[in-house]
Amino acid sequence: MEASRLLSRRGFVAGMGATAALVALGGFGLTGCTPSKAASESPAESEDYDAVIVGTGGAGLSAAIAAYDRGLTNIVILEKMAVNGGNTNYSSSGMNASETTFQKDQGIEDSNDAFAAETLEGGHDTGDPELVQFMCDNSAGAIDWLDGLGIKLDNITMTGGMSTKRCHRPTDGSAVGLTLVPGLMAAVEERGIPVKMSCEAKELLKDGDAVVGIAVDDKGKAKNLNARAVILATGGLGANQDMVTKYRPDLAGYVTTNQPGATGDGYVMAENAGAELIQMDQIQIHPTVEQETSTLVAEGVRGGGAILVNTEGNRFFDEMSTRDKVSAAELEQPGGFAWCVFDQQVYDANKAISKYDDAGIVQQGASVAELASAIGVDAAALADTIAAYNAITTDGAADEFGRTEGCIAFVDGNMYAIKVAPGIHHAMGGIRINTKNEALDASGNPIPGLYAAGEVTGGIHGNNRIGGNAVCDIEVFGKNVGEVVAEALA
């Protein structure tokens, strides 16, 4: 069979981490272009499935649940790390969605078309309009689907680039990822869907043009998992500095918010199977990353009223602008960083802040003057900055930086600040797909048997991703690919 000849010809590198394998092969060639001694001496074991899902982030878990619930039960999920969840564990702001039941219950007016228009505008009109519209049109359905799984996202706030409250968070305002992953894993376990942990995907198996399975290193043992469909939900590349700088040399040395397993494996496997990669140079930096711990300070903190000030205690930009613009403005400040400053009401409204505090990255003062002393800025300047910001809401004054969203006046009492600067956050480019999540070649033709969802795909966010849209992406397209594959294989 051509698939077996292809595998034996290429082989794969067993027992190596994804990053090490890429470096050993010159950075970005197919993992396993040279047969290892173990692979050549011992034929791989074989297992048969209808579908294999690679990755236990939000996209992969949602795909598995949706496929199972549509009757496709002979499936397996692969996770190369020893912990599940991928970058979804680090998702903090929430999930953008429009025309949702929760919005309507809270009197928030919104529309799918407005959501799509602002998403395209936020990506500077470089996203795929069809994919964007599909995501927005199906966002409310995904919120309802999650609610049906016991994952309630009814606490709604704003993120930069959005004109209304559509960022859905857990009821208590906590980081969305730490609610989403356990909830999805519980649904996976309830259905008895097998998950292979510490199982690293190495190479897609092909028979002619069709993908017919995947070669893996399952805890040190070489295996071929034969499948009628493979769904790549492998996440991004932010933890692979070599791959980051291949596409963006200017990002050398930046810290990353990504989990260690985000090493770009899916891009390599898909491209070598004939898929087209698009917009790979579009790697987003996030403006509010604490540099010593690489902790992402959620955009909901700014959306809830926080401001950014420089070393002189002055604001310098609209905090609710898009991430690329805020990051660029920060880098122009003395030292290339800013202080994210907020009061007790913002602290209390964002449960993630207590975790930042526990990590030791939050500075505190009982007053503006005490906070200014703690962070080394001029107290009078900081007081004037806060007074001018308060006037936007209390007196209806126009903001000199054009901020119109998330303007909530500071109240007297405890004040807080976190030192932030840009860090590598999200890969907007990736595998070219259509609204059926089929992986496409350079001519726009689907590669039989190969699907992709989540951060490993490209074309949805353009050259700038709106905060809250990543979770919408992984949930809408994760659910969708599971249903599509189940229907295709029925």
UniProtKB/TrEMBL annotation:
Its cofactor is FAD. The chain crosses the membrane at residues 12-30. Residues 50-471 form the FAD-dependent oxidoreductase 2 FAD-binding domain. It comes from the Bacteria. Coiled coil: none annotated. GO terms for molecular function: FMN binding; steroid dehydrogenase activity, acting on the CH-CH group of donors. Signal peptide: none annotated. Belongs to the FAD-dependent oxidoreductase 2 family. FRD/SDH subfamily. This is Flavocytochrome c. It comes from Adlercreutzia muris. The lineage of its organism: Bacteria, Bacillati, Actinomycetota, Coriobacteriia, Eggerthellales.
